[in-house]
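Pilot study result, target chain (139 residues):
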Amino acid sequence: MPRGISLTEFQKGQAIAYRNDGKTIREIAGILKIGKSAISEFLKNPDAHGKRKKTGIPRKLTPKEQRNLLRQLKKRGASIPTAQRESGLTHITRQTAFNYVQRSKQFQFKKRKHHPKWTKNSFNLRNENIILNGLKTYC
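Predicted structure:
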């Protein structure tokens, strides 16, 4: 279950002031329009409220490394593996670098449009069409 919204400094101060005035947790929650459990958890230990450490695996690239990777990719003709090598990011895989690039707003990947292979018949049809329209081109 996700964490709830933590109280603002103003709400924390109000909750403590109302509690010192002798109001109940239910009354404080009604005045501040915040859940009773949020108020009670805050009043149990006000110093520790909103200080829990982040969970999960840390990111593989720091923001500086991400910027460096994207800067290398902006160079003309750069591919992800070359940008990765030039940035010195040998500790991540090509797929991880690709995921970071895909997540960035600076680049948009488009799938190439598929076209069928040229056959002798398609070449002949193309050449007939060129001759019929009076166009002279070279393949």
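One observation from the pilot: The CA atoms of residues 95 and 111 lie 17 Å apart. A full batch analysis is planned for the follow-on phase.
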